[in-house]
Each structure stands twice: as structure tokens, then as C-alpha cells.
Amino acid sequence: MIRTPLRPLARILEARSKGENPDAIERENIRIRHEQMRDRARQRAEGRLLILGIFFLVGFMAVGVRMGTLATSDPAEPRAQAPGARITAQRADIVDRRGRILATNMDTHALYAQPPQMIEPERAARELVKIFPDLEAEDLIEDFTGKRKFLWIKKKISPEQKQAVHDIGEPGLLFGPREMRLYPNGRIASHILGGASFGREGVHSAEVIGVAGVEKAQDDDLRDPSRTGPLQLSIDLTVQAAAEQVLYGGMKLMNAKGASVVLMDVHTGEIVAMASLPDFDPNDRPVPLTTGDQGDSPLFNRAVQGVYELGSVFKIFTAAQAIELGLVNENTVINTSTPLKISGFTISEFQNKNYGDLSVADVIVKSSNRGTGRLALMIGGERQRAFLDSLGLLEPTPLEMVEAPTGTPLLPKRWSDLSTTTISYGHGLSSSPVHLAAAYATIVNGGTRVRPTLMKRDTPQNGPRVISERTSAAARKMLRDVVGSDHGTASFGEVAGYHVGGKTGTADKPKTRGGGYYEDKVIATFASVFPAHDPKYVLILTLDEPVETSGPKPRRTAGWTAVPVAGEMITRIAPLLGLRPEIEPGQQAGVVLTAN
Amino acid sequence: MTEMVYGARPVTDGEPILPKWWRTIDKWSISCILILFGIGLLLGLAASPPLAARNGFDAFHYVQRQSAFGLMALSAMAIVSMMSPVAVRRLAVLGFLGAFAALALLPIFGTDFGKGAVRWYSLGFASVQPSEFLKPAFIVVSAWMLAASQDINGPPGRALSFAMTVVIVSFLALQPDFGQAALVLFGWGVMYFVAGAPMLLLIGMAGAVVAVGMFAYNNSEHFARRIDGFLSAEVDPTTQLGYATNAIREGGLFGVGVGEGQVKWSLPDAHTDFIIAVAAEEYGLVLVLIIIALYATVVIRSLLRLMRERDPFIRLAGCGLAAMFGVQAMINMGVAVRLLPAKGMTLPFVSYGGSSLIAGGIAVGMLLAFTRTRPQGEIGDILRGRVR
């Protein structure tokens, strides 16, 4: 047994010696010591209680401050969180120039799962795979039985699919209301519209955002809640559909790997139809190519993004400028027989022909490289460059599509005499078909600058004057002769009653690797205008690597490939555009008036 | 001589009970408690109709029950607060024995109401959660032991109370009810801290809590899911937390208006664990700040009054009760604003729940009894020159 010492020992011993009970002394001692201990303990506890009080004060203040910051921040999903809040049409429709729907919205549902609420995850997964064959049962079971608390299964489902999922009877499978973008015309005008997908997604709503084309370029405008009415494009759905159909047939017939067409109003700059093949369905956009040339992707818009050396279609610009500057008139004779050598390069004609002396008009009709080269040297590089710039050929088009800025023309690094010569017949400068359409519209509409647009407008642009009315008329005459005269390069483009004018261009494709050009790959272009005496529309049709094989030798020139396709297209679309054919009065049947 | 002649005067224990109670009680704290109870009823009017609708009762069925329980709780609080500290201690020891027995027998007679944890006794008309009653009784008993251990030749109360804590915590963790377990541990820790625990030991104990938490995280799916939910930066908008956060944001400064709130329809625990979200949505930040201020007033005033207390038992028991009361409120609100991981814990006096209300009434009654003004040997202080 441990003995506790008796305290205070001196007094206890003294008490013992007197025969008194020492317990009372000890108790008294313990009481005093307790008092002292309690005093000390209280002092220590005072400090610690203060610490505790501060801890609680800080804790409550932290909760209060946090509450304050939360309460003053914005709710993550404004009123959509409330059950039953209707999701209204948030994105404006897109319609064509006559008000026909090109893009609209449709109510649909997204399917998501909350595995913790699931009763029979395996059965639900198996039933889902029956409804959506593209899902994998193993993956779903893994997701449903794993740690995930929330997963999207399908972004958009049809009403039938929704009912089928509902019939599974699984409480962990839930639907979120969605609004999806619908393109009721499928592939028609696919490149122009682009497409849309979901942006930020919540359970109760999702943003629809444009991903390409007009949808992306006009995204802010389309999503502006204060906007009223649809976005009206300059496209004419009927013409667009007809143009795409003819273009597809022509592309197949001419064994081309791609094709594009641009139909533009020469006065307003409105693009009435524009297509690029191969195309896609904007309701189900394909994924971008991961290998190879993006130019071969169906998503690639040849009419806007594709910059090509378009060839002889440029010759009219050289001729028009030379006439405008007063250097020549359309009847001035140019010598095209002598060899033209610049910086060591010899400029030759197609198939090394020799046309001899040609008038300026015939230089265009025969498409003489040497003839335009001489005209260009008379003009000079400086003035040529300024002229092409005033036609809008040296900068990206202002088209209302997100792809437009990527269609930047490729210019020579140094605008030498050689460049001047080659550019005069369309080599050494790459531009897109839309550029060409705008430049042609400027040349033939009387000479005022036209900028391409996809938005409907009612009045002519009346831009700054580039060439005079007289020069414009001369250019129209020359273009008409290319098609109308028997020896022109585009005689297949003649459409009875519509007075088609135009210029062909057959450009060798530059090799993708290394310098030089392919021998047997061309870009065939036909830039046409109709009716030539009072132009209304410009039609640019381009075929990529066409080859016409009906003759003994494969023929690749535009006159044999692009021109017949364009002729067929004009035959189809001109009546749709409301143009009346001008029928030359035929021979009146001889009526004999008889009288008694 | 006078007594020899006229007989001894009957001994009276100072002044009558009620006037003495009113003179010595902490009137600020009791006012705060009464206001909190009133706010609880007000929020019950808003938060419980959806639950009543789900269970097929009248719209205000739960408000009526809450009022009945509230009257019982307030009576209990008043009666307990009139007792002397010694009487409170005796009552608490008896209550502790009863509640501990009830807790220990839960696995045999208890029910889980389909919530995955056996915490309740079903009595037909009401259910009782023994751990709610155990908490205040445990605090008082532990305080008694800790105080006794400081006496010369006293019992080894510190070790005893620690053993008791461990046993209770393990019982609660087995239910599983980690929230109550943590509260019990925290209450004991606070008392031990005030009783003069060495700092080194406190740091070690904090480490032990972390270790236990890790163990629980790895072995309890229920617990792990809640921690995961807290740690993930993104709030899933369909979880309770997501709804609560959104409700607070919807409410803003002045709320969306009485009865206009939406969160009560989506949250299953809107009337208990997430009642603060209902308050924030319908009445705005203003009411929330008032509630926080009321809790802070009760806790901090009690602690300040206890600083003057000489009796170690009263000091320890009082601060243990105040800390438990405050920390429970703090955790409940901290969860709703995502300062703390999700933990089912009621807001004392405001949340719906019979057991928690009556137990809370008893606990606050004890706290009020301990914080009553008592002579603290001020004369001695004055004589020693330590005048306040």
C-alpha cells in the first residue's frame, strides 16, 4: 500500500505528541490546498475558455460570411431549376429569302442516369441496349454499378425512344428537357448553315451553340433573347436544291472528286445559291478528318475556304483594265505569235498553239495566255495589283460565315513582272470561287464594287465605281462572245434564250509536295453571267480534277467539263429565278389573207 | 440566548425559488433559446407541408407535433434550469445510466426506419433516439469525473471518463452514427482541454481523430460517399447539397418570399438537416444571420459566464454542454454552405424532431442551471487585490 505523506507533518507530530486527533488538521490542510488549486485552475481555465469562445465566434462568423457570399452570388441555373419551368425557343430560326425554314428548333429530351437511385441496374442496362443498339451493355453495367452518381446516356432521344425508356420503369433513368437544332432540308445548304451542338449542359436545359457556317458566325445574334423574327438569308431554297442536284450529277458525269458552285446577284451581292461537294448532313455533322488533307473532308467548303489558282477566268480582269486605262480597245490587235520570255520563263499557249495576231476581244475568246500577258505588261504590276485589290481579290471575303476569314487569297511574295504576267491569266494568285463571283459581278454590273453577302437585302449595293459603264459593256460583249460565237471556248454553255456569257479557266493543280504542277490534274472553272446584255446573275462553277472520257483522248479543259454542267444548271435555275427566256421571233407561218 | 428562549427559527434556504431563478438566470441566453424555438416553428410552417403531403397528413401536422414537443422541451428546460448543480448532477447520472442502457440495447430492440442506421426506438406515436438524451447526460457525468480527479486523493476520473467515452463512441459508430460519435468525442475533448490537458496530448488526439476518419472513410461506404461529395469541386445539382446551395443563392438577401420556396419540395431532409436552406430561400440571408447570431450569443455568453466559475465541475459541465450545442449548430449550417462534408446533424431547437427537441431542452436547461449567477468568492479576489 502506498502511504500518502501526512501534511503538515510538523503540526501533526505536535498534535500526536499532545494526544490529539491529527485528522482534523489534515482535513483542514486539504481544504486550504483545494482552495488554492481551484484558484489556479480557474485562472488557467479562464484563458482556455476564452480560446474556446474565440473559436466559436470565428466558426459562426465563417458560416455567416460563407452564407453571405453564397446568397449574393447568382444561382447557377436561373429559373430552370424550378420544376415545370418551360424551356422556350431560345435560338432564332433561319429562313431562306422567301421565308422557308432552313434551321429551326425542336423539343426533345436528353437521357441521363443516376445509378444510386437504380433498383435493377443490370436489367436497365440490358433494356437500354435493346432500345439503343449503339450502346454497350458491359459499359453501362459498369457505369451503373460503379461509383458514378450521374452520367449522360443520350444527348437527344426521339419521343418513341423516350416512351420505350420510360417503359423500362427504372427510377434511376431520368429525362432532361432539351431543345435541339433541326435542319429539315438535310444536306441542302449544309455548308452555309454549318451546324449546332450543345454548349453548357445542365439537367434542366442546355445551350444550343453554332459550330460552323452562319450558325457560328451569327451565334450571338441568333441567341439574343431580344431578337424578334427569324434570320433571313439570301439563299433561295429551290434554286439551291436544283443547283446542288445538277452539280452532283455533273461531278459524277465528269469524274470529278469535288465541285462547287456560287450563284450571286450581280447588283446586290446576295449569294442566292452556294454549294460544295462532297457535303454532309448538318443534323449529324461528321467528325473532322484526323489524317490526310482537310480539303478532302466533306466539312470543307470549297466555295469559301478553297483558294485555288483559277486560271484563265482572270483574263477578263486584265482585258477590262487595259480597256479602262485606255491602253487598248476591244479591236486593238495584239501579236500573240512571237514568243514571250520573262525572266527566263517562256509563256506558252494551251497545247502550244499559235493564234497569230488577235484582237483584244479574240484574246479573250481564244483564251490566249501570251495576249493577256502582253496586256498585263502594258498595265504594269503596280496598277494590276491595285485593280485586283479594288475587285476584292486580295483579301478575305466579308461573307457572314465563320469560315470566310480562312479563305485568304494566296499572293506572290514579290509582285515581279513574271507574277504580273502569270496573274493576268490566273496563275500565281489563289482565290476562292466566292472571290471570283464578286469580282465578276463587279465587272459586269456596270462597274461598281460588289461585296458578297448571305443576308437578304432588297437594294443594289451601288459600291464605289471600279470600271466605267462603257468598259463593263465591252467586257460583257467579250464574255458573251466566248459562249455565243462558234469558235469560243465555252460554246457548250449556250442556253437558248438566256444569252449566257462567261469565261473558262483550266488551271493545272499545284503539287501538294514540292514545286511544279500536275500534268493530269486540273481545276476547271466556268465563270458565267446571264443574261449577258443585262446581267442579273453570276454563276461560278468549279470542278476539282474532272476528266471527260467520251472522246478518244481524256479531256480535262473547262470547255468540256465545267461548261456543259454550268449550261445545264442555268437551264434549270434560270426559270426558277424568274428570268424569262428571250425567244427570238421565229418565222411566222405564212398566212395568206384571202378575200373574195 | 434568543433561540434558547423563543426556539430556533425554521431554516429557510434563502429566497423563494422563482424569484431567485429569475434573478440568477442568464436572461440573454434564455431569450435567444425562446426566439430560436419560435423561428423553428415558423420554418416548420414552411418546410414541413411537403413532408406531410407525402405522408398523407394535414399540411401542418408536423407543426402541431413540433409545438407539442416544444412545450414539453421548454417545460423540461425550465424545470432543469431551476435545479441546483448538485441536483442536476444526480439527475444526469440517473439519466446517463438509463440512456446508456437504451443505447446498448438498440441493436436488439431498435429500428432503422429504412435509413440504414439503427438509431431509434419506435414507440408507435413517436420515436426516441437515445443518443440524443445520452449526450448531455454524458457531458455532465464526464465533467463530474474530470473534476473529481483533480481533487487530492480523488478517484482516477480522467481515465474513467475516457474509457466511458471510448465505449459510447464505439457504440455510436456501430449504428453507424458518426455524427453523434464525433460530437461526444468533441464534447469530452473540450472538457479535457478546459480541465487543463497538456498541449502535446491535444495534438495527438487531433491526429487520432484524423486516423479514425480515414478508417471510417475506407470502411464505410455511407461515410465515404459523403466525403467524396464534399471533396469534388463540382456540386452535382441533383444532390441534397446542390439543392441546398441553389436554394441559398435563390434566396439572396431578403428571400423569395414566404411560402414561395422550391427547395422544400426537392429535399427529403428539408425539415431537419437542411432547414437552414429553407430559411435562406424563403426569408433570405437576413434570417440566416439572425439565427447564427442567436446561436453565437448563447454559446459565447455561456462561456464568458463560466470563466468566472470557481467550481471545476460546474465549469467543465457548462462548457461541455455549451460547446456541444454550438458545434452542432455550426456543423449543420456549415454543411449547408459546403464548409464541411455532408453530415446528418439537426439544428438544435429549429429542426423538426421530438427526441432532439426534448433532449435539447434538457441540455439547455442544464446549461442554464450551470450558468446561473452564484457567489464566486469575490471577497477573496478583492482582498487579494484582483478586482475585476
Structure, explained:
The complex is a heterodimer of chains A (596) and B (388). Helix content of chain A is 35%, strand content 19%. Chain A has 596 residues and is α+β, with helices and mostly antiparallel strands. Chain A has two domains: 94-232, Alpha-Beta Complex (Penicillin-binding protein 2a (Domain 2)), CATH 3.90.1310; 238-284 and 301-576, Beta-lactamase (3-Layer(aba) Sandwich). In chain A, strands 1, 2, 3, 4 and 7 form a five-stranded mixed sheet that branches. In chain A, a hairpin with a 6-residue loop joins β17 and β18. In chain A, α9 (237-253) packs antiparallel against α17 (562-576), α10 packs across α12 (369-379) and α11 (360-366) packs across α16 (469-484). Chain A is elongated and about 175 Å long. Chain B has one domain (32-367). Helix content of chain B is 70%, strand content 1%. Chain B contains 17 helices and two strands. Chain B has helices spanning 2-6, 17-24, 27-47, 49-55, 61-82, 85-109, 130-149, 157-174, 178-194, 199-219, 221-231, 240-251, 263-266, 275-307, 312-336, 354-370, 378-383, and strands at 121-122, 127-128. In chain B, α3 packs antiparallel against α14 (275-307), α12 (240-251) crosses α14 and α14 (275-307) runs antiparallel to α15. The relative contact order of chain B is 0.15. Classes of the chains: A alpha+beta (596), B mainly alpha (388). At the A-B interface, α2 of A face α9, α12, α14 and α15 of B.
